[in-house]
């Protein structure tokens, strides 16, 4: 079931058209990756979805209701981003209590469990936490707040590998206990890809890929062999990138392929999501 709908959305900042006629739907209870290179408008889209900023044109609706000035709809959303919205003098425990006062039904039990896992001291003041621990505090709030839509803008910023793993585990844990919609932007594509149900890829202000991870991975291939063989094999396929290494060529393909390789001396491998997105963002740049 579709819950969030983005309709003909445009965002212009100082004559720069950051988002161009975006139309998107987010299904209920799924994990989305909102991906794209630096500066393509991911944070802008999340800010628009939570009405931190107003769109130049277009609108966003939840269950058919425009979110504009709609407290009921906006109360269903929680955005974690790099802004530190808490007073530095607030202790972590007080932040949890404050969130409970604002949203109600804060999951104190899970917050306590996660604080223990991440080794976050509840008595420390927010202003005294390291960058990574501030992120951890915000992650715990985002996972324990009782909303239907959790938007996580670069949630692993400043986290070391161990804490990133704990974050991924906690996400799987909270999602399996209480399935709800997560929209996550991240540059750690291969790490995050294992968690995603859907991928939305923005480039030049437009959505250029929007599909389930299953279908995307089913169509993503790297084909390696002599240039002639690879060229011949891929002649009717959607080639999105090429790489030459000595006498070997690899062509990256986003298409259905059959594995009839008998007459070709080639190797067909799966292409990972990061490579796919690099190829897609470079289309048309080779000249
Ligand atoms: N409030 C604002 N005023 C003016 N320009 C803005 C504003 N917010 C964002 N921009 C511009 O919009 C563009 C998109 O920025 P945004 O932060 O949404 O990108 P992003 O995809 O989240 O990037 P990153 O991956 O680097 O975080 C950038 O060129 C940025 O400078």
TrEMBL record:
PROSITE patterns assigned: ABC_TRANSPORTER_2
Domain ABC transporter positions: 4-229
A Pfam family recorded for this sequence: ABC_tran
Record keywords, A-Z: ATP-binding, Nucleotide-binding
Transmembrane intervals: none
Domain of life, source organism: Bacteria
GO molecular-function terms, A-Z: ATP binding; ATP hydrolysis activity
Name this protein carries in UniProt: ABC transporter ATP-binding protein
Organism: Philodulcilactobacillus myokoensis
């Amino acid at each position: 079931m579709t819950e969030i709908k983005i309709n003909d959305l445009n965002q212009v900042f100082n004559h720069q058209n950051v988002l161009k006629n975006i139309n998107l739907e987010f299904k209920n209870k799924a994990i989305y990756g909102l991906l794209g290179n630096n500066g393509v408008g991911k944070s802008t889209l999340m800010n628009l979805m939570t009405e931190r900023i107003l769109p130049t044109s277009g609108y966003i609706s939840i269950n058919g209701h425009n979110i504009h000035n709609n407290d009921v709809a906006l109360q269903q959303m929680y955005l974690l981003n790099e802004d530190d919205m808490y007073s530095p003098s607030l202790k972590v425990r007080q932040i949890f209590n404050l969130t409970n006062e604002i949203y109600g039904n804060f999951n104190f039990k899970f917050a306590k469990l996660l604080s223990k896992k991440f080794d976050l001291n509840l008595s420390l003041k927010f202003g005294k936490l390291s960058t990574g621990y501030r992120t951890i505090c915000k992650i715990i709030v985002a996972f324990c707040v009782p909303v239907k839509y959790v938007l996580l803008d670069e949630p692993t910023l400043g986290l070391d590998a161990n804490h990133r793993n704990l974050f991924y585990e906690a996400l799987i844990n909270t999602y399996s206990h209480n399935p709800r919609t997560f929209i996550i932007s991240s540059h750690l594509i291969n790490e995050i890809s294992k968690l995603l149900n859907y991928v939305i890829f923005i480039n030049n202000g437009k959505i250029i890929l929007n599909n389930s991870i299953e279908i995307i991975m089913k169509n993503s291939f790297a084909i390696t062999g002599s240039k002639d063989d690879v060229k011949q094999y891929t002649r009717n396929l959607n080639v999105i990138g090429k790489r030459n290494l000595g006498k070997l060529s690899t062509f990256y393909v986003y298409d259905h392929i059959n594995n009839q390789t008998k007459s070709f001396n080639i190797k067909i491998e799966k292409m990972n999501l990061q490579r796919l997105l690099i190829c897609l963002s470079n289309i048309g740049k080779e000249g």
